[in-house]
């Protein structure tokens, strides 16, 4: 009889609010400002940090920093369980990294721009010339000031297709007037060399107080496209194409292009696969991420004829063993004189199951992946290593042909606790199988992450063991946005 008395039960700690995330980052920016080797400052309008608290999920909290500042901010975001959803570090282009943080209000995005202040391949202000304000904003921390402040508040959004008005434009003009004549002249000369005289003169006039010409956006965007396609920039532009092209129909909850992600749970009976799968499904659904749950064990959804083979092999059917124990063996072993025949049947069954795995991938997993869903798969082709014929070459072939999981999860607990949950099989057999799954995890077959989730429930009060899995899944969905040199 199956027991759930030892099912892991513990309270998940409350996820941080956006305000709490902002407070942690504000403290880091303030600490960086006191370090002579580090620099960091908020980007955007003066009220951008506070406005981010109630903004839609796809809205970035933008921070500029130098390399030392990036290390400090990265450590804070890593401590918050953030996932990298976009990274661009191609030489000659804007260097930035976007993080998604799971909060009580859903996913929140923080974007760190490192080094030179740029838009694509267009250099606005070199990092060595970027100045930050000495006064704290209401959220804490520093803002870009002088030419860098004007470029960030006005030129940066202009190059992305919009002209700012109201307080943000007034702030840009105030920073422009705060800078010296030499700084302004050097900036306009730099823009003129990259975007042409007309765009540079219109930017100069607008920051000086003249209303922006109605065709400024069009001319600026055309100039940016030309700069991106110049011979010295074309290679970096191509490497960054996935972060440049609009997502359109493939956009996820963050507005970025997403891919389907395959999450596979492995482990012996009683390890906690179903519990972890349910928790992960609930967390992702709460974030607005579409999921599909698939069972890939050998007990359900089999092709015709497998039920007969299971009876010949002495393996219990679902009806005999219960819905969660379809892989449990009957207590009565087959007669000794049938061993040779059973070995042949097992070898045949291994290849039959290998074909079935391919069929079920095509039928159940592939369509959901193509729709950009996260597929949470209870068991996978690795079960063929265990049964029906472990020495067959079928497991090796099917693992080679089948797509690797993006995330591999092993729910784990002490062997005695696992057996207490599902005592239908001998304890030593369960322990040996779980040990083999632990070894599988160490082999790292997953494309993004191979993770162990503690399902013991021991000393777990207030511990969120699913958070690292959620972060890995979010990162996996956005894996196409990592552009490297």
Strand order of the largest sheet: 1-2-5-4-3-15
Based on CA atoms alone, the radius of gyration comes out at 28 Å
Task: Report the sheet with the most strands, covering strand number, pairing sense and barrel closure.
Answer: 6 strands, mixed
How confident overall, as mean pLDDT? 85
Q: Looking at the structure, what is the overall shape?
A: elongated
InterPro entries: P-loop_NTPase (IPR027417)
How would you characterize the overall build of this protein?
InterPro entries: P-loop_NTPase. The chain has 485 residues and is α/β, with parallel strands linked by helices. It folds into 2 domains: 18-250, no CATH class; 261-483, Rossmann fold. Helix content is 44%, strand content 15%. The chain contains 18 helices and 15 strands. The chain has helices at 18-33, 48-52, 67-79, 146-159, 166-178, 181-195, 197-208, 216-228, 231-239, 241-244, 273-286, 306-313, 318-321, 339-370, 394-401, 415-421, 427-443, 467-477, and strands spanning 40-42, 60-65, 83-88, 96-103, 106-114, 117-119, 122-125, 131-132, 144-145, 261-265, 291-295, 374-378, 407-412, 449-454, 482-483. The strands form 4 sheets. It has a 6-stranded mixed β-sheet. Helix 1 (18-33) packs antiparallel against helix 3 and helix 12 (306-313) runs antiparallel to helix 14 (339-370).
């Amino acid at each position: 009889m199956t027991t759930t008395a030892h099912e892991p039960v513990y309270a998940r700690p409350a996820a941080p609010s956006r305000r709490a995330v902002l407070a942690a980052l504000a403290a880091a920016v303030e600490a960086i400002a006191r370090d002579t080797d580090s620099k960091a400052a908020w980007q955007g309008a003066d009220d951008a940090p506070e406005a981010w608290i109630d903004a839609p999920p796809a809205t970035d909290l933008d921070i500029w920093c130098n390399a030392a500042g990036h290390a400090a901010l990265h450590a804070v975001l890593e401590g918050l369980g953030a996932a990298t959803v976009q990274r661009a570090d191609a030489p000659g282009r804007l260097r930035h990294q976007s993080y998604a943080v799971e909060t009580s209000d859903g996913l929140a995005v923080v974007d760190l721009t490192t080094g030179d202040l740029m838009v694509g391949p267009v250099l606005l202000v070199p990092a060595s010339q970027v100045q930050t304000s000495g006064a704290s904003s209401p959220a804490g921390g520093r803002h870009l000031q002088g030419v860098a402040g004007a470029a960030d508040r006005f030129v940066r959004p202009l190059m992305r297709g919009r002209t700012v008005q109201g307080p943000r434009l007034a702030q840009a003009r105030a920073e422009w007037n705060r800078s010296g004549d030499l700084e302004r002249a050097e900036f306009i000369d730099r823009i003129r060399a990259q975007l042409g005289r007309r765009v540079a003169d219109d930017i100069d006039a607008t920051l000086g107080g003249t209303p922006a010409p109605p065709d400024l956006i069009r001319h600026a965007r055309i100039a940016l496209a030309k700069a991106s396609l110049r011979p010295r920039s074309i290679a970096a532009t191509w490497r960054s194409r996935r972060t440049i092209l609009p997502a359109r129909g493939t956009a996820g909850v963050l507005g970025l292009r997403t891919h389907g992600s395959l999450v596979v749970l492995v482990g012996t009976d009683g390890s906690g696969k179903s519990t972890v799968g349910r928790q992960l499904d609930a967390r992702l659904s709460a974030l607005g991420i579409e999921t599909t749950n698939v069972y890939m064990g050998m007990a359900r959804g089999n092709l015709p004829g497998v039920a007969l083979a299971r009876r010949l092999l002495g393996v219990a059917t679902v009806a005999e063993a219960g819905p969660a124990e379809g892989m449990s063996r009957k207590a009565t072993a087959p007669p000794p004189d049938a061993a040779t025949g059973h070995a042949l049947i097992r070898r045949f069954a291994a290849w039959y199951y290998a074909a079935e795995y391919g069929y079920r991938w095509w039928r159940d997993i592939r369509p959901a992946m193509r729709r950009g869903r996260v597929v949470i798969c209870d068991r996978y082709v690795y079960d063929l290593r265990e049964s029906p014929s472990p020495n067959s070459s079928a497991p090796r072939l099917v693992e080679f042909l089948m797509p690797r999981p993006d995330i591999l999860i092993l729910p784990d607990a002490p062997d005695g606790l696992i057996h207490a949950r599902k005592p239908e099989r001998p304890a030593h057999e369960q322990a040996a199988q779980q040990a083999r799954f632990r070894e599988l995890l160490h082999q790292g077959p997953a494309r993004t992450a191979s993770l162990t989730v503690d399902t013991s429930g021991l000393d777990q009060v207030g511990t969120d063991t699913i958070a690292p899995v959620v972060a890995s899944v979010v990162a996996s969905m956005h894996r196409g946005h990592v552009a490297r040199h």
